[in-house]
Amino acid sequence: MTMAKYWRFLPLLAVGLTAYANNTPEEDKEVNRKNVIRLVMKRINNEHYAPKAVDDQFSRIIWKKYLQALDANKNTLLQSDIDALRKYETLIDDELTNPSLEYFNAIYSVSMQRLRELQEVYRTILAQPMNFKVKETIQPDRSTAAYPADEAARREVWRKSLKYQVLKKMLEIQQKDKNKTDAVAEKEARKSVLMSTDGLFKSLLSNTASDDRFSAYMNTITLEMDPHTNYMAPIDASLRESMLTHRYYGLGLELTSKEGDIVIKRVMPGGTAARSGLLHVDDRILSLSDEKGAMIDITGMSIVDVSKMIRGENNSTLKLLVRKSTGTEKEVTVVRGEIKEDGNAAKSAVISDGARKIGYIQLPEFYLDQTRPDGAHCAVDVAKEVEKLKQQQVDGIIVDLRGNPGGSLDQVVAMTGLFVKTGPVVLEKDRTRIGSYPIQNGDKPLYEGPLAVMVDEGSASASEIFSAAIQDYRRGIIIGSPSSYGKGTMQITLPMGKVGDAAKGIPDISYGSLALTIKKFYRINGHTTQLNGVIPDVIFPSRRAYARIKERDNESALVADTIEKAYYMPYPGDAELKKVAAAAQDRINRDSAFNVVKRDVEWLRAHDTPVYSLEKNAFKQQLNEIQSYNDAIDKAVKLPADKQLTIKGTSIKDATPDNLAKYQEWMNNYTKDRYLAGTVDILADMIGK
After folding, report:
1. Is the pLDDT of residue 635 over 90?
2. SS3 string of 215-244?
């Protein structure tokens, strides 16, 4: 969670102050990367909440984890490569103390060589028809397997992997067109897999490959300190800032992926793309211009990487080569403009429950834009939604924080003050002191009626601060998955670079930025959400119960501990809340639909690393069995037609036809939500008859 942002340049040591007039571009890059290492390690050692010792043991961990980052499925490097790289196993700590790139350069060189070798391997394999009547098996997850002993063993790994991919694609093709024969579908599937693999390798071997691998190397180091200390290259730092502020400069396009291509899914009204009239839904983007104007083929790039290229400076131009739905290709030039992203803004609606009205507020993240006076503040937006619901005379309010990853600490403190009268919201602890963040609302909360808060495994950081405060004050009831994410740390974002000299024509240099963990936060009762998360008062069975996606699943996560609790006064009525929670839990435990979720999730947990047959009929049977369990869960968590929720809108800002359609679509998505319906029932119990 971002606590604050200090946007200033950091000083470099003498080696970083010299102009590199006589250096080659590669030599400049080497010097810059050493400066990144120097600055990152200096910041970690001086300011991280609990920096780990950078010693031989730390070196061994980085050595192993960077190998995993580059070759997670152990299908690229050979065992001989691992043996040759082992000499660096206890030297990386020295290379971080006295910046050196010897290990990085060595592993980069060998990995690129192996990738180039594999291009011929996969193309040769995919050039030949595949026999899906042979009885053989594959375990797609090779993370625990050994590295291939030689090139022949590696080729066998790729043969089975590509056969698995082709078989999956073949079944997809025949699912769409049941009249296609195995021979036709197999040929189309091989062509599709070849295109996607070509695209992947084009990205892996692109001219940004070295920078991408270096960012991964730095993050292997920073993330070993804790899961939230991470390095961002300049373009990633810019993207992070735009996500938090909900503003960026781009074209106003929503993208999707179809058959390996990046396709325009929606042209946002008011964006420069819409105003230009040059880009349309279903246009396939083939190439984009880089910062120097050169056209870059985007085949194989992810939507995230393409989005990064589309974003840029205000009023800058971007060239796009697109293939129209007619099949013709056209190069267009569009000027970037400001995009205000309101898709993750707070929204509200009213749910009818018999004679009762239940207010519903969804907040996908705790956003804050401090860059301008009219910047987005989520607490202000939530207050506006509460006012709308009060005007509708709702009997209670649900705040939905499912999937909310956190955000601004200031905003969660302010938002808590909308519902709680007075007192501390959260405690913090750095290396030397303990502090608190109090409510500042003049002892006048905006809403004092019945309140429920929904959370799940994706509710983290600021979401956990809010739900923990509501729970500790006994202000409302917390409902959701067995626990929230479990992040109890605070970060600051520190830019790194060197100030240039405009008079001498020397530009500023950016080395990116570092998100650094500097504090831990604690509930007002002295306990922590770190690792533990927030345990709801009422627990729903979760389809993601078996997924390793929480803080405690990270080996480098900071430990959970306790401090002295703060002075605060819980609301009266705790006994009644417990009574409501107990009755609700009993109801959920007896619910047949939720029992289907619980049963089938357990089956999926037991089969989460399957060994697949590569014989078509057996493979299809395996997929159908797995899909049947997922389908049963999907059906169970959706309400039948006669039980669906009745949801009506309040009002929205900028009520254009496009925005109204999106708002209606948002409400429609929740009419079948059994978890929301269960929460409505619980809030109804709190309200009473």
Report:
1. yes
2. HHHHHHHHHHHCCCCEEECHHHHHHHHHHH
Give the whole-angstrom CA distance, residue 117 versus residue 111.
10
Same domain, 276 and 214: no
Token couple for 671 = 């009419």
DSSP conformation class of 16:
G
User: Helix (H, G, I), strand (E, B), or coil: what is residue 287?
Assistant: strand
3-class SS of residue 196: helix
- What does the pLDDT look like over 524-553, one tens digit per residue? 999 999 999 999 999 999 988 888 889 999
In 3-state terms, what secondary structure has residue 285? strand
Helices 409-416 and 462-472, packing angle to 10 deg? 30
User: Which residue bears the tokens 């929230």?
Assistant: 484
Of the chain, the end-to-end C-alpha distance in Å amounts to 40
- Report pLDDT for 17: 33
Q: Which CATH number fits the domain that encloses residue 383? A: 3.90.226.10
- Cβ atoms of 218 and 210 within 8 Å: the answer is no
Element (H, E) at 39: helix 25-47
Angle at 435 between CA 432 and CA 440, to 5 degrees: 160
Full-model pTM: 0.87
Strand (E) or helix (H) holding 498:
strand 489-498
Residue 567 CA to residue 546 CA, distance in Å, equals 37
Q: Are strands 261-267 and 646-649 parallel, antiparallel or unpaired?
A: unpaired
Residue that the structure tokens 């999956």 belong to: 168
Give a yes or no: residue 365 inside a domain: yes
CATH code for position 253: 2.30.42.10
pLDDT band, very low/low/confident/very high, at 625 (cuts 50, 70, 90)? very high
pLDDT at 8 over 60: no
Alpha carbons 657 and 318: distance in angstroms, whole number: 28
Which distant-in-sequence residues (6+ apart) come within 8 Å of 407 by Cβ? Answer: 1, 2, 244, 365, 366, 367, 368, 378, 461, 462
Close Cβ partners of 636 (under 8 Å, ≥ 6 residues apart): 593, 594, 596, 597, 600, 674
Question: Residue 243's pLDDT is what?
Answer: 54
d(CA 223, CA 98): 20
Q: By residue range, what is the domain housing residue 335?
A: 247-340
β-strand pairing of 247-250 with 337-340: antiparallel
Structure token pair of residue 500:
């240039």
Other beta carbons within 10 Å of 257: 12
552 in a structural domain: yes
**Among candidate residues 324, 325, 357, 364, the one with its CA nearest the CA of residue 341:** 364
Per-residue model confidence as pLDDT tens digits over 440-475: 999 999 999 999 999 999 999 999 999 999 999 999
How far is the C-alpha of 397 from the C-alpha of 416, rounded, in Å? Answer: 14
CA distance 525 to 529: 11
499 and 641 assigned to the same domain: yes
Q: What is the mean pLDDT of the chain?
A: 90
